[in-house]
C-alpha cells in the first residue's frame, strides 16, 4: 500500500524538455533532507517541444512522479489548477519549472509552515528577471492594487507552500479567469512570506510576451474589480456637473447679449470629447458583460488528455 504523501509539489511545464529532468532531480535531493513522503505533479500545458516525452520517461522511472498532459495550451494558471486538483498531500508546493524557483527552498518553506502557518509564500530577493519583466510586474502590482484597493506584492509569485484546506478553498473559487497568486490573497488564512534565493533562467525564455502580460493584467483586474465602471460613473458625473455650470454661464451671457459669435470649434470639440467618453464607457460595460457571458457558460478551464 502506497503511503499518503505529506507534500505534493505541483509544477506547470512549458518548453522545458531540457530542464524538467533536472527539476525533478533537484526536488528529490531537497525532499531527501526533509525525510517526508512526497509526490511530484508535472502538468504539461501542451508544450510544443518534447517536454511530454521526457515527463513520461520520468514518471515511468519514479512512481511518485505524476505527469498530466492538457488537451491544448490553456495557460500557466489553468495548468496550476489542474495540478492542484490531483494533489493529495497535506501540504502543496506550487513552483515554476524553469528552476528560477529553486527546489532547495522547499525546505525553508516547509519548516516555516509547520510553525503554524497555512500559507507561506516565497519573496524573491535579487530577482534574476529581465528589466522589462521586473518593470511590468511592478506596474501590474501598482495598477492592480489601485483598482482592487488591496496590496499586491510584486516580489511574490506562484512559489510557496499551502495547506490542503487553503488549496481546497482556492479550487472552490469558481472564477473563469484563473490567476493563482490573486486567489491566494483572496482566500485568506494564516499567511506569511519568507525570503528565498531567486535563480536565473536555466533554459529558454519566458512564455509571457508583453501582449500576454497586458492581457493577463487586464483580465485579472476585470475579474477581481468593478472599479473601472465606478471611475467612469464618477467621471461622467463630473462632466455633467461642469456642463451644467458652463451652460448656466452661457445662458447668462446670452441674456446679457454678450455672445456675438457662436463657437463652432467648442461645439465640435465637446461633441467629440463626450462621444469618446460614451463609447469608452459602453466598451468597458460590454467587456464586463462578455466576462459574465464566459462565466455563465461554465466551460472547464482545462481539459486533461493523458495522465502517467
Architecture overview:
With 308 residues, the protein is an alpha/beta fold. Helices cover 51% and strands 16% of the residues. The chain contains ten helices and eight strands. The protein has helices at residues 20-34, 51-61, 76-85, 105-113, 131-148, 164-172, 180-187, 210-224, 227-255, 264-297, and strands spanning 7-13, 38-44, 65-70, 91-94, 119-125, 156-163, 191-197, 304-307. Strands 7-5-6-4-1-2-3-8 form an eight-stranded mixed beta sheet, with helices on both faces. Strand 2, helix 2 and strand 3 form a beta-alpha-beta unit. The longest helix has 34 residues, at 264-297. It is elongated, with a radius of gyration of 25 Å. The mean pLDDT is 78.
Number of strands: 8
Cross-sheet strand order for the largest sheet = 7-5-6-4-1-2-3-8
- Terminal Cα separation, in Å? 19 Å
Largest sheet: 8 strands, mixed
Query: Cα-atom Rg, whole angstroms?
Result: 25 Å
Work out the helix count: 10
User: Unreliable runs, pLDDT <50, ≥5 residues?
Assistant: none
Strand content: 15-25%
- Rounded mean pLDDT is 78
Task: Using the alpha-carbon principal axes, give the shape.
Answer: elongated
Helix % is 40-55%
Task: Return the structural class.
Answer: alpha/beta
* Topology as a string of helices (H) and strands (E): EHEHEHEHEHEHHEHHHE
Q: Which SSEs are present, and which pair or pack?
A:
Layout: E1 7-13, H1 20-34, E2 38-44, H2 51-61, E3 65-70, H3 76-85, E4 91-94, H4 105-113, E5 119-125, H5 131-148, E6 156-163, H6 164-172, H7 180-187, E7 191-197, H8 210-224, H9 227-255, H10 264-297, E8 304-307
Parallel strand pairs: 1-2, 1-4, 2-3, 5-7
Antiparallel strand pairs: 3-8, 4-6, 5-6
Helix pairs in contact: 5-8, 6-7, 9-10
